[in-house]
């Protein structure tokens, strides 16, 4: 794997840290600004919505800019947003800083995934994407716990200044290590990028992203009350449970990247099916400390095992114009997070208990599995028609190019 992937992973580490560390610092931020914790929660919601909107917006704005330069500009935007958050004298300005930082998120991962895939041989693309996303998963193991600890001891503003410094490191790494890749023939054209969304396989992959990773967040969003109120853990133990979740994410990301390069759709069938079962089982294992800890690791591993194959699936199916589709798929992860957190809150508010979101998560992951099976069936039918159908034979070369052999 080329060293340039390390620079992308450092940028991903900073982005992952700033996205999730705020959850552990909400009481400190709320107290500093004199707002309620639910009001401070808009710092989480605002960031997620900024990712969803910023992914296509920033990608479209950057269509005429070489990808390396665009990645550097996005890291600059990320740095500016975190510095603004750290220095904000009022809550509204802090929220603005969060949104500014979030605008870089989707486009960075979307364009970064395209760049990572171009840096390696075709049979190693999913592994390269996974290597970049390792920065995001490691952030949950190292960056978020350390950032929370720093914020609680030295002040939350210090945490955001450190995150901004990570952004500077990522920017310098991209400038130094990422090569100037040739622009796509004819440049990146909006019309051709938008045309990718007429491909039903691209839309199915994005729907799988929303539902599959949404299943994870249905449970993890409410992990603190579930673990303290049901499993009997102390409040102080929740940080280490989240570290276990992060370790699972790291393992799942690497495994997903490795096996997606060998058999992408089977990898999705197995990971989504196992995730749905594990989330359903969590309803029962949540009553046991040991059982809950093991299940949390599995949820992290199985959830993130879907990320490299889903991202590569989008790149494969939008092969002629992958940049916008790749970025929008990153936004789809955050859309799934927001949807799942809302649905999980609904079942809790309905009085169904702290473990009820696990059933929501299982249903979402199960729905993603159904879509994966539909996607695979459509692909086999298309490939079969190209191989055997009279007039369809003329389209065989194009169809074969759209359906990589390793699928």
What descriptive keywords fit this protein?
407 residues, mainly alpha, 17 helices, 82% helix, disordered C terminus
Describe the structure.
There is one protein chain. Helix content is 82%, strand content 0%. It starts with a helix and ends in a 5-residue tail after the last helix. The protein is an all-alpha fold and 407 residues long. The longest helix is centred in the last third of the chain and has 33 residues, at 356-388. It has helices at residues 4-33, 37-40, 42-61, 67-87, 91-118, 125-154, 156-177, 190-195, 200-220, 223-231, 238-260, 264-285, 289-305, 307-317, 322-349, 356-388, 396-402. Mean pLDDT is 85; it is low at 390-407.
Give me a quick take on this structure.
The chain is mainly alpha-helical and 407 residues long. The protein contains 17 helices and no strands.
List the helices and strands and how they pair.
Blueprint: H1 4-33, H2 37-40, H3 42-61, H4 67-87, H5 91-118, H6 125-154, H7 156-177, H8 190-195, H9 200-220, H10 223-231, H11 238-260, H12 264-285, H13 289-305, H14 307-317, H15 322-349, H16 356-388, H17 396-402
